[in-house]
Design goal:
Layout lengths: L11 E3 L5 E10 L6 E8 L11 E3 L2 E5 L3 E4 L3 E3 L2
Parallel strand pairs: 1-7
Antiparallel strand pairs: 1-2, 2-3, 3-5, 4-5, 6-7
Length: 79
Amino acid sequence: MPSFSNEFINRKVVDSSGELLGSLQDIVIDPRTGDLTEIMVKVEPEIDVTKLPWSMKDNLCAIPAQEVREIDDRVVLRR
């Protein structure tokens, strides 16, 4: 049986103006509360990750859940 997170893996992640940031690679959930804490994004190669406001972990951009506006057929960020 596929996990819940697998339904979202590889969806496009875009900023508030619709510009492609990358693709969703993983979601992080707090095991105590069950709340989504961050999403892990594989950033497009032409984007300079040093200019992003989020940290990088294992070559993925760790974006806090508070930055996510909606998750649908793509993930839309608040900024």
